[in-house]
Design brief:
CLK_kinases, two-stranded antiparallel ribbon, protein serine/threonine kinase activity, serine/threonine-protein kinase, 12 helices, alpha+beta, globular, Kinase-like_dom_sf, transferase, 6-stranded antiparallel β-sheet
Length: 422
């Protein structure tokens, strides 16, 4: 089955030309004695809050510095436990790029390989534009000699998770939610055709596309006039991330760092992706899995987009709990087929179900049909949404639709201008 070839609108960003003023470190006089007491212990900020944080594992970026002789650092955009992300301006092309500077350690070979595969795939498929690829990588060396890998991406707007938090009542319009999911499905259809499983489809991985780059120029201008707040130490500045502006371009699926590559219809064995509230049952139960884990995650993402909560929160004492998650699945889908339980390579199924597929876990099963959870919609909207979710939330992965089949689901097609797709 070939990927979709829908005539989706293209993004043609203009090139902003802001001026950047490099920042220089001020050196202190060596003739003045330095105090050794009376220091205030500052709170940890940004990447310092990451588990097992060690300064030497992060490159000491200074706003205004030039990377690889052509990218000038303009502002910090984000951080996580494994990287910091920066808005940079290409000095020759006068264009904006996002650069992720990875934590010291092995190169992200998996993401590099997948980005190379997808970015060089058939350019006639419009859907390839709606995934976030690495467009270049290079290495920089810290003052202490440590090498760091830099990944260059086109810039994008805020995540839909952040966008949702900014809305009154955290409610995204139904039509916007439908459009976002369709573009995610276009992107997944393209990935799955080329044997790539994303494995981490969430609102955090879906970002707003950028049409007008003036918003990025505004970030740069503000940085030159009002430098970012920062925490200064002997060997580095730790900057506060700047808000990413709202953008109204087409949604883009990012986060290929956890993606897996295999045959188009290939299976992956064992638990090689992390557990969480978006995990499909075959992953929780240590079974072989394939691209249908992405379809499951599309279902949980639809729910979050529309309801601003998790369909399967799986909490116990404030943290994710596997048994709680499985109990929630039984509540929504009923008992799993016995043949499905036999696929597990571990003893988990024996722990939670008897030989007839009846639940025997320590958490009692309660009565809460899916239709009672849908509060926002009534009438036809509610019925169409329920029909869509029931297609997706199936124990057996093979019974879930493909990304291509879901694109044209009746609920998602409600607000589509069919004339624009011809």
């Amino acid at each position: 089955m070939s990927p979709l070839r829908s005539r989706l609108p293209s993004i043609r960003p203009s090139l902003a030309r802001p001026s950047l003023r490099p920042l220089h470190n001020l050196s202190s006089s060596t003739s003045t004695p330095k105090p050794t007491t009376g220091f205030v212990t500052l709170e940890k900020i940004e990447e310092e809050k990451s588990p097992n944080y060690h300064p030497a594992n992060f490159y000491p970026v200074h706003i205004g510095e030039i990377l690889a002789s052509k990218y000038q650092v303009a502002s910090k955009l984000a951080y996580d436990a494994s990287s910091t992300t920066w808005l940079c301006r290409h000095l020759q092309e006068k264009a904006f790029f996002t650069i992720k500077i990875c934590k010291a350690g092995p190169l992200p070979q998996n993401e590099l390989a997948i980005s190379n595969l997808l970015s060089n795939a058939d350019t006639s498929y419009e859907a390839r534009k709606y995934a976030r690829y690495i467009i270049q990588s290079f290495e920089i060396i810290a003052p202490d000699g440590t090498p760091f890998c830099c990944l260059v991406y086109p810039p994008y707007g805020m995540s839909y998770s952040e966008f949702q938090r900014k809305l009154p009542g955290a409610q995204i319009d139904k039509e916007v939610a439908q459009r976002v999911i369709q573009f995610v499905l276009f992107s997944l259809d393209f990935m799955h055709y080329h044997g790539v499983v994303h494995t981490n489809v969430t609102l955090n991985a879906i970002r707003q596309g950028i049409v007008d780059y003036k918003s990025l120029a505004h970030i740069v201008y503000n940085q030159s006039k009002h430098p970012s707040a920062r925490k200064v130490s002997d060997d580095r500045n730790i900057y506060f991330s700047q808000p990413i502006p709202f953008c109204d371009g087409m949604p883009v699926l990012s986060g290929l760092g956890g993606a897996r590559l295999g045959r188009a219809a290939g299976k992956h064995s064992g638990r090689t992706i992390a557990l969480g509230v978006h995990s499909a049952p075959e992953v929780i139960l240590d079974m072989e899995w394939d691209c249908k884990v992405d379809i499951w995650a599309v279902g949980t993402t639809i729910w979050t987009l529309i309801n601003d909560d998790d369909l399967f929160p799986a909490p116990k004492d404030g943290i994710y709990n596997e048994e709680q998650h499985l109990a929630e699945l039984v509540v929504i889908m009923g008992p799993p087929p016995v043949e499905f339980l036999k696929r597990s390579s571990s003893t988990k199924c024996e722990r939670y179900w008897d030989e007839q597929g009846n639940w025997k876990g320590s958490i009692p099963i309660w009565d809460q049909p899916l239709e009672t959870r849908v509060k926002r919609f009534k009438g036809q909207d509610k019925e169409l949404l329920l029909n869509l979710l029931r297609k997706i939330f199936r124990w057996v992965p093979e019974e879930r639709p493909t990304a291509e089949e879901l694109v044209f689901d009746e609920f998602l097609m409600q607000s589509v201008d069919m004339e624009g797709l011809k």
